[in-house]
Amino acid sequence: MTTTYDPTHPKYFDEPDLRVELERVYDLCHGCRLCFNLCPSFPTLFDAIDGRDGDVAGMTPAEQDQVVDECYQCKLCYIKCPYVPPHEWELDFPRLMMRAHAVRHDQGVPVKERLTDQFLARTDLVGKVSSATAPLVNAVTGRPGSLARKVMEKTVGMASERMLPPYARQRFTTWFKRRTIAADTGSRAFAAIEPQGEVSVFPTCFVEYMEPAIGRDLVQVFERNKVACSLPEGTRCCGAPWLHQGNVKEFTKAATRNVAALADEVRAGKEVIVAQPTCAYVVRNDYPIYLAHTPLADDAVLVSAHTADPAEYLVRLHKDEGTSLDTEFPGRESGEVPDQVTYHVACHLQAQQIGLKSRDLLKVAGVKATLVQRCSGIDGTWGYRAENYDLARKVAGPLKREVEAAGNEVVCGDCHLANGSIEQETGTRPVHPMQLMARAYGIPEEQAR
Question: Please, is 208 exposed, middle or buried when counting C-beta atoms within 10 Å of its C-beta (0-12, 13-18, 19+)?
Fold first, then answer.
């Protein structure tokens, strides 16, 4: 048995070795049970062992694999588990599940699963094509249960009833470059005067192709607070879909490309800002692990140390000596932003253990946030797969109930994936905290051209 979460370890892809390690960890989890209510994996695990009077060694490979399949990488184990490294038991449940997926992928997966993996992971290719033909793509794929969606389910494994986020006609980077050209020609003053900070906005595929409005408001809020914004050159999707399906080779390629670009930004004196919690988690926590034995090992650690959530960065400006946050909010006085909102705390934001910075930032703007800390059942791409759809909706049930019980007209959340689930479950379309802050500052929503 090898307790390893290092993908370069010689035993990492060895299935017999993995099976023994699964047995060890499952035994520890069965004896503890603190995570009984986090995700479907744990009830499934406990029932299988309890049905054998505690004999974990009696679990079949199929039963072990069901536990793996029902883990959607919410990462909340890290908050509850008392045995995570550096504990002597070295129990890292999410990374063990990723190892199991990597072993399966290394052995070869069925054609249908490979098609699903490719469709979900090639976000830049799909995003570029879909943005260029956005009205058509959104019309064809935007109605859950339609014939087109049923065909997608049969061919690429995307759940036909899952609400899909629409694509934007103008990409975020296109908007940013056009406004930069306008600023350079003197037709409009976008750049912060005497900036108190500089950041590089890593848009990821969500902001780039689907929600550029979040990026536009983020940039304008930062510039309102005299923080100069730029974009890194050469970055693409963070690679999370490759990682979660066990494709270590493709994920490492994505990490290598992005770290090389982002490290240049950090060395130029900029902080990296990531508006999507899943992507931020990957940059901070996964890149250093998967690049640990490569020439970019030090750069991955450097980028990790200088990556921040947007609200985290702004709260730091507000609290640190020598910097300040603009606390004049004309939009609040005019009633554009409500006194109270429902704020969904994303799982991958909790897992970063940075505190509830968006809540704290909204509080500075005079907005009280009612917290909802329930998983959306999406978590990367897990909830988009047809085979997980019913279980994902079940996972999202408590989220739906708590959002509706809060009774606020406005719902906000940092995670684009979770926000889509909230909209499907409740009919309310959440907004990003940066969008609320922009309206509180009286910044009108800038429409794409």
Answer: buried
Show the beta-strand stretches assigned E in 54-150.
none
Q: 449: helix, coil or strand?
A: coil
Contacts of 229 (CB under 8 A, 6+ apart): 198, 199, 200, 201, 219, 222, 223
Q: What is the pLDDT of residues 287-310, one digit of tens each?
A: 999 999 999 999 999 999 999 999
Residue 258 is assigned to a structural domain of this protein: no
Report, in angstroms and rounded to the nearest whole number, the Rg of the chain calculated over CA atoms.
22
**Residue 238: pLDDT above 50?**
yes
Q: What is the CA angle 12-16-17, rounded to 5?
A: 45
For the chain, the average pLDDT equals 94
CB atoms within 10 A of CB 180: 15
* Percentage, residues of the chain above pLDDT 70: 96
Residue 449 reports pLDDT greater than 60: no
Report if residue 422 sits inside a domain: yes
Of 315, 322, 238, residue with least CA distance to 280: 238
Report d(CA 357, CA 355) in Å as an integer: 6
The pLDDT of residue 301 is 98
CA distance 383 to 388: 6
Among candidate residues 107, 125, 156, the one where a domain is terminated:
107
Q: How far apart are CA 60 and CA 279, in angstroms?
A: 34
Instruction: Find out whether 304 and 283 touch, Cβ atoms under 8 Å.
Output: yes
Residue-number span of the structural domain to which 433 is assigned: 327-440
Sort strands 197-202 and 227-230 into parallel, antiparallel or unpaired.
parallel
Instruction: Give the SS3 label for residue 272.
Output: strand
Strand 227-230 vs strand 368-372: parallel, antiparallel, or unpaired?
unpaired
Q: Domain total for the chain?
A: 2
pLDDT at 187: 38
Burial class (CB in 10 A: 0-12, 13-18, 19+), 272: buried
Q: Contact 199/231 with Cβ under 8 angstroms?
A: no
Among residues 107, 122, 152, which one ends one of the domains? 107
Query: Which two tokens mark 227?
Result: 């923080």
Measured distance CA(40)–CA(395) in Å, rounded: 8
DSSP for 293-352, please give it: TSTTHHHHHHHHHTEE-HHHHHHHHHHSTT-------HHHHTTSS-SEEEEE--HHHHTT
Single out the residue of 261, 349, 336 nearest to residue 310, CA to CA. Answer: 349
Tallying the residues shown for the chain, one arrives at 449
> What is the C-alpha to C-alpha distance for residues 132 and 148, in angstroms, rounded to an integer?
19
Q: Which two tokens stand for residue 27?
A: 């035994």
Average pLDDT over residues 170-190: 73
